[in-house]
Design a protein that fits this description.
TIM Barrel, disordered C terminus, 8-stranded mixed beta sheet, globular
Amino acid sequence: MTFNSLALKIASRCNLNCSYCFMYNLGDTTYKKQPKFMSAEIVNHVIEKTKNYIKKYNKKEFSFIFHGGEPLLASKQFYIDFVTKVNELKKELPNVSFFFDVQTNGVLLDKKWIALFKSLEIAPSISVDGTKKAHDMFRVDHKGNGSYDKVFKSAQLLKEEMDYADIACVINTNESPEEIYTSFKKMNASYVNFLIPDYTHDNFPFDKNKTTMADWLIALFDIWIRDANRFKIPLFLGLLNSLMRITEDAKNESTVLVIETNGEIEAIDSLKACGHGFTKTGLNITSNNLEDIQNTSLGNLYFNDLNSKLCNQCLQCPLNEICKGGRLVHRHRKSNGFNNPSVYCNDLIKLIAHIQNFFISCYPELHEKENIEAINPKEIMEYLSNISKEIESPFKKELESFLQEETVLV
């Protein structure tokens, strides 16, 4: 099993109403049947099943990510009790390192919360969508009011109190990359995880023949790479590392298992964008072990060789070792499951080519001595468009074995 983190949905409600939210606004309404907060009973089961999983698979590191909804709607005592229980677990597992993160929208973050997180060694990350205009375009409260001003103050407070400010930002291509980048510089961001919006083939809002997302990211990359005092952008660092055949142990989407407030065990929750109830497995932490996720069709695909079980077009693509087919949610279509390239396929090709071409320009000897050719995105796109549709992926049956309404147990 590959996962080494649990995303704990400790609150299933949110004080914001972000229009693009896969939890609440992309068609999955199962949250309405969830308890608002994770109970102490569920937490006890989480701790016990985590202990068993670590022992069975000999894990040396394990992370708990407090998530929601909005996790700061839970009480401070919840965090104290949870970390105390994990610290008790350390006595039985002395060679295991535990880490704690919390992903918040930042509206409720203040000095008291930050002091608590410092004392418990919990690392907060805040969701901010760049400029005030970009942020307040989507990240509004339930009365339609923007949240940027509060969140900006929270990010600066986090930087002052903890000497870092980690940010998650959903990309808005209607806003200038330069203005977005400058806004994060003003915020003193240490790390910005730019997130490509979670669309499927059924609701993709862009023209697939254009490369709107790539053009935006290329402009951002050029600004970022020229800045001697740049903050970290994992999207770019990950592609650079892949191009240089460097691997890192940083978390990626297929290393995180989700536990809902009622104890339900699921794969990553961005897949909720695929349809109502899509991530439901019938598994619950009260009666199942964590590794039972691999006995579901979705879990088996997600946690076992996710990046090698691809559609035929991706298998034939010379860049699949770099992009790895893109994120799973971006490959989904109701009519044939995940047997598709990413909706951002051309964007990924163009972005990867740009970064590789930049790298070669910095080290011309790679081309001259190592015979490394610059990637031509148009050639790759044309090649892929001419691949016969009649040739099927060897994983066709598995990739298409997903229903919109539920995940089928195998």
